[in-house]
Each structure stands twice: as C-alpha cells, then as structure tokens.
Amino acid sequence: METLVAIETVELSTPVEEGPAVSWAAVAAGAIAAAALTLVLLAFGAGMGFSAVSPWGNSGVSASTFQIGTGLYLICVAVLASAIGGYITGRLRTRWVGVHSYEVFFRDTAHGFLAWGFATVLGAAFLAAAASNVAGGASPVGPSAPRSAGSEASVNYYVDALLRATPSASSNTTDLRATRREIADIFMTGIRDGDVSLPDRVYLGQVVAAHAGLSQADADRRVSDVINQAKTALDNARKSAAKLSLWLTAAMLIGAFSASLAATDGGYVRDNWNSALTGR
Fold first, then answer.
1. Using CB atoms within 10 A of its CB, is residue 168 exposed (0-12), middle (13-18) or buried (19+)?
2. CA 255 vs CA 16, 17, 101, 122, 263: distances in Å
C-alpha cells in the first residue's frame, strides 16, 4: 500500500526596507526648532538677570556666582532646547519597514545627534551675534583680538587714569587727543606682548608728569600702578572667559546626549502609534 505524502512549499518573505536611512527633513526641522528655542531661552535668561552683575558692593551677584549661575543656565538651555529638537526629529522621521529594533534605536540616536549638530552649526553661523547681544557677554581683549570699540573703551579708561591731573596742578592739554592715542597704542602693544617694556614705561612716566603736573617719581609710580591694574583686569577677564568656555563645552555635550535620547523616544512613540493605527 503506497502512502502519498503531500509536501507544501511555504515561501517566507522578508519585508523590504522602505525609505532612506536618514530623514534629512526631520533633522533640519528639529535643528531649526532647537536653535530658535535656544535664542528664546537666552533672551529669557538675559531678562532674568543672568547677564548683569551689580556694580554695588554686597548687592546683586558676585563674579563667581555669576559664572556658576550662567553656566548652569546654559546647561538647562542646552538640555531643554536639544531635547525638544531631538524629539521633533524622532517624531517626524520616515518610518523604517523591515529594520531590526536595534537598528531603529541606533538610527534614532543618530538622527538626534545630527539634529543637535545642525542646530549647533546653525547657531554658530547665524545666531552668534544675536545671542551675544542678548546674553550681554563681554569678550576680553585677547592677544589677537581686533581693536574694536569695546577694547578701545577699556584701554581709554586706563589712559584717563594716567592723565588725571591733581587739583593743584595745571594740566597741559596741548594736543591731548594725540597723546592719549599714543598711550593707548603703547598699552595695546604691551597687552599683546605680555608687559609694557621698560623704555615705554619711562616714556609714559615723562608724559604723565608733563600732563598731570606730578613729580617724576609720582608719575612713575602711577604708571606702574595703572599697568598692574590693567594686567590684573585682563588676567581676570581671561580666566572668566576660560571658565565660561568650560561651562559651554559641558552644555554642548549634555545637549548632544539630550537630543539623541529624545530622538529615540520620539521615534518609539511614532512607530508604536503607527502600529496601533495600521495594525502592523
């Protein structure tokens, strides 16, 4: 007796991946949202007083408190703006069909990171000037800094201190504008080179003695005091700028992490809602 065995061939079809791996439209949308929200939060922070230090003693915030408060606020801005931008990127990206869940997680993370990177480049290219004006940050006069109106104002302060006359002395105001410009150039050269040279110090003492009505010894002493004040102020400004740069670096790194994490959450919500609606 023969037994007939029926063999049925079943073809297993693997879903084919649809769409590109990177949704650049979603990345651009999330980056624009993050950059715009960053500018809004910077404006809010300036309004709340994060960019102002009280000139009165024992009132307002100190320089160290201002640096810490500004740094913490920069981190909050980076977390909030980057997270919202990354979430928008994850929700708007194209759904990938036939892609493993691990690969989806990696792609969502990459989308969030790309959105953060695009927002950072966008902010550096187009929003740097506006953000600095809103935040009210002061840039120190560095060795390679151009001679701007702010740097000239800082140097002119010390020049006025040098040419300040005593009440009993008759100040020689002949060609004072040219003299002040010459002293300002000496200060700028000394700041760039690290210190004012000895011949320049001798010359400054002679000019101060002639214009301020002081003895040569008092003029030399005033020159040394004002140069030391200028060097101390410049050194403090450089240290403050370095600390603020570290805070900014921390804020950017935390912002990159927040954007990547939020993008995975946005992509997960999008895929699950689509699955619930379409049944697949």
1. exposed
2. 35, 31, 25, 15, 12
Least confidently predicted of 3-12, 24-33, 140-149, 192-201: 140-149
Interatomic CA distance for residues 200 and 183, integer angstroms: 9
Coil, helix or strand for 267?
helix
Contacts 24+ apart (CB under 8 A), 158-163: 158/187, 158/226, 158/229, 158/230, 159/183, 159/184, 159/187, 161/222, 161/226, 161/229, 162/204, 162/207, 162/208, 162/212, 162/222, 162/223, 162/226, 163/208, 163/211, 163/212
Output phi, psi for 139, to 5 deg. Answer: -90, 130
| Side-chain-facing half-sphere of 70: CA atoms under 13 Å | 26
Q: For the ranges 103-112, 184-193, 244-253, which has the lowest average pLDDT?
A: 184-193
Q: Where are the domains of the chain?
A: 24-141+240-278, 149-234
Residue type for position 30:
G
Q: Rg of the Cα trace of the chain?
A: 31
Q: Is 129 helix (H, G, I), strand (E, B) or coil?
A: helix
Q: Is the dihedral of CA 132, 135, 140, 142 positive or negative?
A: negative
pTM of the model: 0.65
- The answer to whether 93 and 267 are in contact (CB under 8 A) is yes
Cα angle 249-104-15, degrees, rounded to a multiple of 5: 160
Q: What is the mean pLDDT of the chain?
A: 76
Most confident of 10-24, 38-52, 176-190, 203-217: 203-217
The two tokens of residue 210 are 């002639």
133, two tokens: 């004006």
Are the C-beta atoms of 53 and 237 separated by less than 8 Å? no
Longest CA span, the chain: 137
Distance between CA atoms of residues 268 and 273, nearest Å: 9
